[in-house]
Amino acid sequence: MAAPSAAQRIVIENAAIATVDANDTEYASGHLVVADNKIESIGAGRAPEGLENVVRRIDATGHLVTPGLVNTHHHFYQWITRGLATDHNLFNWLVALYPTWSRIDESMVRVAAQGSLAMMARGGVTTAMDHHYVYPQGSGDLSGAIIGAASDMGVRFTLARGSMDRSEKDGGLPPDFAVETTEGALAATEETVRKYHDASFDAMTQVAVAPCSPFSISTELLREGAALGRRLGVRMHTHGSETVEEEKFCHELFGMGPTDYFESTGFLGEDVWMAHCVHMNDSDIEAFARTKTGVAHCPSSNARLAAGIARVPDMLKAGVPVGLGVDGTASNESGELHTELRNALLINRLGAHREAALNARQALRLGTYGGAQVLGRADNIGSLEAGKLADFVLWKIDGLGHSSIADPVTAIVFGAAAPVTASFVNGKQIVENNRLLFADEEQIARDARAEAQRLARITAQS
After folding, report:
1. HEC per residue, the chain
2. pLDDT tens for each residue of 204-255
3. Is the pTM of this model over 0.90?
4. Does Hydrolase appear among the keywords (predicted)?
């Protein structure tokens, strides 16, 4: 039997480092050593002497190294419907866009996923997720197209396999041909989990069970979705408490608010995370804390759709796991997560806690370790610690936009979006000097424009 090959090492030195570990350990000038796909050591000063099989050394002077950013909520397909219905609240926005979204097909979804992933990856995202819930009849292999795009780009990925079974005829918003039957949705979701989900420590692809929202699914789909997720041992995701209209809808239809409704169907728990959670009272927050249900906070989208300000400081104080989300790019046209660090901090300071709401390090934690918690991966990503996977980013902070800000973490949170000199996923570099290494950005832009125009033509003709 051949001897196992020795680990190949990458050594990064002379960097400011924010580990985002349990003690928020930071180094003004430190080192990070990667062995294959894991962090081998991290600490102050230069790397240990005598390391073998060092294939690359990086002098990171003028940079801050952080864990890679973790996106906890997105809708990739919306990349080709950006800039529409720009002055609408959530329900009116959905009514305006569902007729267009219902015409998507596999080619459109593949290109939209490429655009969404590219924008995030070159901005420091190393773990992405997509909540895809629109599966029009005859539209092709949409889940496969999304997962393939993430694999090609080299990004760690969770597909939240969504579903809808409440169409216009049942009092929902989507057209009838754009929803699945309850049985069909559950069967397709199970097939996707069995085909793509990887439960291993260094998994690049995972799948979650993700019925869309209370107003687009039946109670049966929500309840059976929770049972399916637990039978398969995967996480569950949905939208919750996003708007006052949703609150009213739940009270009228179910006789209770969204959180109580979710709990009644088994859709709260440490294996569940919800998007938005803007309109949460004290009892709702207590229920999330008690059950360890996670939250994907999407500050830009919440502002774009005038949904309100989520009570993030209160959630964190109660012990609710909270991460950050881009949300779909039809309600956050920038499509970036690193700008959400700043937006989360600023928007929450407009709320009841004012300047005490969030600080720079709390914002960074939301975008890294908090996201890892929400996706159920805090044991392997989200902080820079020996033994964890080598997902990290080198932010350039000695340029015009940041050089006069003394504190590196303040620089990347309060300052302009910092350039990404390098981004690594699983020990493999995917971004260099703000450019993707495994994708042609110009080609993606051309393809996205063409598919957006094709979708607009199909919608107009229908």
Report:
1. CCCCCCCCEEEEEEEEEECCCCCCCEEEEEEEEEECCEEEEEEECCCCCCCCCEEEEEECCCEEEEECEEECCCCHHHHHHCCCCCCCCHHHHHHHHHHHHCCCCHHHHHHHHHHHHHHHHCCCEEEEEEEECCCCCCCCCHHHHHHHHHHHHCCEEEEEEEECCCCHHHCCCCCHHHCCCHHHHHHHHHHHHHHHCCCCCCCCEEEEEEECCCCCCCHHHHHHHHHHHHHHCCCEEEEECCCHHHHHHHHHHHCCCHHHHHHHCCCCCCCEEEEECCCCCHHHHHHHHHHCCEEEECHHHHHHCCCCCCCHHHHHHHCCCEEECCCCCCCCCCCCCHHHHHHHHHHHCCCCCHHHCCCHHHHHHHHHHHHHHHCCCCCCCCCCCCCCECCEEEEECCCCCCCCCCCHHHHHHHCCCCCEEEEEECCEEEEECCEECCCCHHHHHHHHHHHHHHHHHHHHHC
2. 999 999 999 998 999 999 999 999 999 999 999 999 999 898 888 899 999 9
3. yes
4. yes
